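Attaching the record inline, Q. Sequence:
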Amino acid sequence: MKFLFNYQSQGIAFGDWITLLTLCLAPVVAHILAGTPSPVIFSTRPPRWMNRIGHYNPTSIIWRYFVIFDRRMRCRNWTVSDLAATNAHFWVDNAWDGSEEMMLRSRGFSSHLPDRSYVHALSGSAIKTIIVALQGAQALYSVIAAQFTAEYLGNTSLATVFLPLAILGLLRLPAAPWISDDWVYSNDCAMDIRPRSKKPEAGNFDEKVPLEELTASRSSTLDVTPLEDEAIAGRFRSSKGPIGILTRVVYLTINLALAGYATYQAAPVADGQMSATLYAQIIFFAILFISTSFISAFYFLGGKSKTTIIPCIDSPWYKAYTALIFLGMILLITLGAIETRKTWCGEWTTYPLTVPGHPDQVFNFCGPAFFLRTSNLTVSDANHNRTISLSNFDGVLSGNWSFVNGIL
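Structure, as predicted:
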């Protein structure tokens, strides 16, 4: 495998730079905006940026999609309160909590709930789903087309370095009917506070508790009160049941398939040639998909896959992994900005014009073409029944041409 690195973007106009950067960042921005909700703060100390950054990791976003879908499938009686709490990211006692227990505890703090237990077809969330789904469909088509033609690989440029990220948007579709941002929570606990000393009526958790009690009683799935344990067992089917196992197997299989494909593409090919941007793109997404698969499998097997916030969100290693992902994105943008050039047919590519070591051979991603240098030559295009004369020509001639007469 030979890796090609060329600085060839010096001739790009300012307007084209704006277009390239817009196309480059569109999948990233859409993925983050559609997949990351605003935090609900139940703490006197709000989260710092280091606490928030993990939510923007693509691994965290698709994990959230999976758990929303899984929770809906396992819930016996899905309500608007469940919809709101499942979509929220709660910051409690200086830590994130997206557990089923927190879903019950937070009910008394909701100041606005959706009017239905699923997403309206004309809501903002539905529009976000349509956007990321269309981007994902385009990316998937490009990846499939790459198996039959070199066009996609040759057209890798600054505009397409994050196109594979859009494929992850398709993982939003199973959970799309229950991904909503039509909810508001308030941490004002000075009004309508009721004691929790007595067990409420069956299924009635829509009561407020003091914020201090909420934070003090924060627990994980391994540390729940008997009342909460009883309520959760009554509302949700076991994650070890047929539905829970099926959703986890399907989710993990999709991630492993993406990881396997990216790893296969990263394998060196004898006598192959690849631009530095394209290879960096393949390595980046191989790391992302492999890491996501490993993390998901670890928590699936450990029985910690029922929280909408990935359990390792506050771990130093996950923050380092998130920083690595964003550094990789910066590297991709930098390489793409250096190597991208416009071809004669208007497409963008990171490959050079000619094959290194073979100046008469053209990297051709625009149809039939060849490099030609002549002082006087007449050529004929059989497809269009026309003949043209070339004088002092030095460049790329596109199309199916045959020589009539002249001097090369």
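Residues 366 and 399 are 9 Å apart (CA to CA). Residues 2-342 form one domain.

More tomorrow.
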